[in-house]
Write a structure and sequence with these properties.
heterodimer, A: five-stranded mixed β-sheet, disordered N terminus, B: six-stranded mixed β-sheet, six-stranded mixed β-sheet, 17 strands
């Protein structure tokens, strides 16, 4: 059976597409703590990436995403931070504690962490297709992960396989349909058997129903 | 809250108590009161475990009222861990109950001649002090069960475990929570050892028949409390982040920042961080029928705690906090939440500071006693402390002692107290506070409170290098003041962003006491607390050379950012130059 019409846009050769009940979508959230690959156009600034490419509303970027790390460096101004091929971007809501407040962007305590504040010294280079690692933490996970899962996230074959193997029976009961490389996957065992190539990037797309 | 109870454990013929007015300490609460008493009444050069030291237990100014978040208790003394002044504070029920019983403080004085253990029962009818050697050696959970059987379940307890009885430098004082479990601890600085030196095993508080403390201006107080609660609930940190994930929500953030001390401060990132993060912990807790959102005392509306069940769904411990998960987790290379939770229970049961013990085991791992990542080995070491074996007593004396015994150079302590969960090379401003606070390395000594709103030390430009010195000073001043109110420090985030919420806090104090304090008065209070503490430490022999981080922070580059601690000694010496 061919892939269903739920999935739009580009699909890679190695792609796993799943339709699951909404109540089981949270099983995918742990992937975002460790980071998932996403395809983007590199060379642009971070604000454009968030609002234009990932289509996160501007007021959400301004008010909800209070803590940003680009390659481990704290970002104060997303417009002055450039995303390059292979970058790791981490997004979080406002955090507790002195250090939590210190790591916030443009916060009153930013001088306390100036040793790890992002300071762009090189031009971002021309825009081109590329990939970055995206991490989501805490309150942002349930709020942003669902739309990113629909867009599709990239995982190495062995990471995806390990993730699939760890899913409980409860999840598979809520998984309505799954397609690997456009073909229907008949059982959870088949899903974990199919994704075997260790380093092959696989696109994971998930749509949740009621 | 107009009287002070003094109990002389060394009196002729057995312990004697007296109750008197607060006198010269009127208007003080929490840390302001404990530090004022220590500074005035404790000889700075006395032995911390001797008869001349005093243990002061004081609720905050608003404890025992209907004010939300007002249940913090301060415990002060000369610290056996640092040799300087100490204020350790804890949540739980004790602060509210003690305040409702009318006590501004309990002061334990003297020292019993023989090894008798005492229990002290306090209710509306008075005080009863009894020798009870059957309590010897009891861990906290067993002890509280025994007290419950004897006094019922409407009590709140302050107690020590075997570590306190052994007078170990890492010994804590446990405070029972709403479920009458000994899960909240005045952990830092060895305050449990001082209680042990006084021969007091447990203080049982029963406020049956007493009511909430009444404000002088009821309507004004009610209005301020309404604004206070609204401010806390509407802020994303106090209203959403902390309730959902607890303080352990910081694991992923610190790890990403490269400031998560790993393998005894060897590197700033831990590969297993996601396995022990607040997000993972909350999911695990709820999946096992525990709670990821729970308060530690009545009147708490942030509810950053929870209950951690074992794999079979049985209570194992309260939700371990970020510093605990870090200390026993990433710092020791352990990525197993169940093992960390078990250690948290053991720490609580034996009466040990989780930060000190995690740092100590990290040092022991560095020394080669066991390998980084050896969770069962770490559990075994904590049990040795509880059993009082020779090795256990060394470990229970803290990271500094353990480092000296085993010849370890990388020992993360300041003034003898272990450093918490934030590497000062990545977040250098917190290194300023670690180095200069009167308390020994302490992340809560300069919290993210409203320094910039109040401009306590003049306007601070966060982009200028000297900003971190000024900020550390200002934060330490304001934190000392907040520590005096009985308010949980987590109120800081809402007051940081919302000036009206900070004003509501001042309004509550004013309405309760019929005062007209301004922000300047709050600053003056904070300064006076620090002045008392600095003065005590100076008289105890501390100099500017004690206001330093260990040498390795200047020499060893922290991965992944390859940074060292860059703040100069002369800059550190400016922190208290106001």
């Amino acid at each position: 059976m061919n892939r269903p019409p739920f999935f739009i846009g580009e699909t890679m050769e190695h792609a796993l597409e799943m339709i699951v009940d909404k109540r089981s979508l949270h099983y995918f959230f742990s992937l975002f703590q460790k980071g998932v690959g996403i395809k983007i156009s590199t060379g642009g600034n971070l604000r454009d990436l968030l609002t234009l490419t990932l289509k996160i509303p501007s007021d959400y970027v301004e008010n909800r995403i209070q803590t940003i790390f680009l390659d481990g460096k704290a970002v104060d101004n997303p417009e002055e931070a450039f995303v390059r091929e292979g970058s790791t971007l981490a997004l979080s809501a406002a955090m507790p504690g002195l250090v939590g407040a210190t790591l916030r962007r443009s916060g009153a305590f930013s001088s306390l962490r100036r040793a790890i504040t992002l300071s762009e010294e090189e031009e971002p280079g021309p825009k081109k297709e590329g990939r970055i690692i995206l991490k989501l933490f805490n309150l942002l996970v349930p709020e942003l992960a669902p739309s990113l899962l629909i867009r599709g996230v990239l995982l190495k074959g062995n990471e995806l396989n390990k993730f699939l193997e760890g899913l409980p029976d409860l999840f598979w009961g809520d998984c309505r349909e799954a397609f690997y490389m456009g073909r229907r996957v008949e059982s959870p065992f088949q899903a974990t058997d199919l994704v075997v190539e260790r380093d092959t990037l696989t696109l994971l797309k998930v749509v949740s129903g009621r | 809250m107009d009287k002070i109870l003094r109990i002389n454990l060394g009196a002729e013929g057995g312990p004697k108590f007296s109750t008197g007015p607060v006198g010269e300490y009127a208007g003080l609460g929490g840390r302001a009161l404990t530090s004022a008493v220590v500074a005035k009444e404790v000889p700075p050069t006395c032995h911390p475990l001797g008869a001349d030291n005093k243990l002061i237990i004081a609720p905050g100014l608003l404890s025992g009222t209907t004010a939300a978040m007002s249940g913090r208790l301060s415990v002060g003394c000369k610290s056996p861990l640092t040799g300087g002044i100490k204020e350790a504070n804890a949540g739980g029920q004790a602060s509210q109950v003690l305040a409702r019983l009318g006590y501004a403080a309990i002061i334990l004085e003297g020292k019993p001649r023989e090894g008798t253990l005492y229990k002290i029962f306090i209710n509306k009818d008075g005080i009863k002090i009894e020798a009870d050697n059957s309590l010897k050696g009891l861990p906290n959970y067993d002890l509280i069960e025994k007290m419950k059987a004897q006094y019922g379940d409407k009590i709140a307890c302050l107690s020590i475990g075997p570590a306190g009885e052994m007078k170990l430098g890492a010994a804590s004082i446990a405070c029972t929570d709403m479920e009458l479990r000994p899960t909240r601890h005045a952990g830092r600085g060895g305050v449990g050892a001082v209680m042990g030196s006084k021969g007091v095993k447990v203080i049982i508080l029963d406020d049956t028949g007493k009511t909430m403390r009444s404000p002088k201006e009821v309507e004004r107080f009610k209005e301020a409390q309404k604004a206070w609660v609204k401010g806390l609930q509407s802020h994303p940190v106090t209203g959403q982040g902390l309730p959902a994930y607890g303080t352990n929500v910081l694991t992923n953030i610190l790890n990403e920042a490269g400031g998560y001390p790993t393998y005894n401060f060897k590197q700033g990132r831990f590969d297993g961080a996601a396995k022990i993060s607040g997000e993972t912990q909350a999911e695990l807790e709820t999946s096992r029928g525990g709670l990821a959102t729970h308060g530690c005392h009545r009147g708490c509306i942030i509810r950053c705690s929870g209950t951690y069940n074992d794999k079979d769904g049985h209570f194992l411990t309260k939700q371990p906090e970020y510093e605990t998960v870090w200390a026993h987790g990433g710092n020791c290379g352990i990525d197993d939440l169940d093992a960390i939770a078990q250690i948290d229970f053991l720490d609580d049961n034996y009466g040990l500071d989780t930060i000190e013990m995690g740092a100590t085991i990290g040092v022991a791992m560095e020394a080669g006693l066991l390998k980084f990542g050896d969770a069962q080995g770490a559990i075994g070491l904590i049990k040795e402390v509880g059993q009082g074996t020779p090795l256990g007593r060394i470990l229970g004396s803290g990271a500094a002692v353990t480092g000296r015994v085993f010849g370890v150079e990388r020992v993360p302590v300041v003034k003898g107290q272990a450093m918490p969960a934030y590497d000062p090379r990545a977040v250098q401003g917190i290194g300023v506070t670690y180095a200069t606070t009167t308390q020994g390395a302490d992340h809560t000594a300069g919290y993210a409170v409203t320094a910039n709103i109040m401009n306590v030390g003049g306007q601070v430009d966060p982009l200028k290098p000297e900003g971190q010195i000024d900020l550390s000073r200002n934060l330490q001043i304001v934190t000392a003041a907040v520590d005096s109110t009985g308010m949980c420090l987590f109120v800081a985030f809402a007051t940081l962003d919302q000036p009206e919420t900070f004003q509501a806090l001042i309004d509550m104090i004013n309405a309760f006491y019929g005062l007209n304090l301004t922000a300047d008065d709050v600053v003056a209070l904070g300064k006076s607390v620090l002045k008392n503490e600095r003065d005590f430490n100076t008289r105890a022999g501390f100099t500017s050379k004690d206001d330093r981080l260990p040498e390795f922070f200047q020499k060893e580059k922290l991965e992944p950012h390859k940074v060292t601690f860059q703040v100069k000694d002369e800059e550190l010496d400016q922190v208290f130059n106001w």
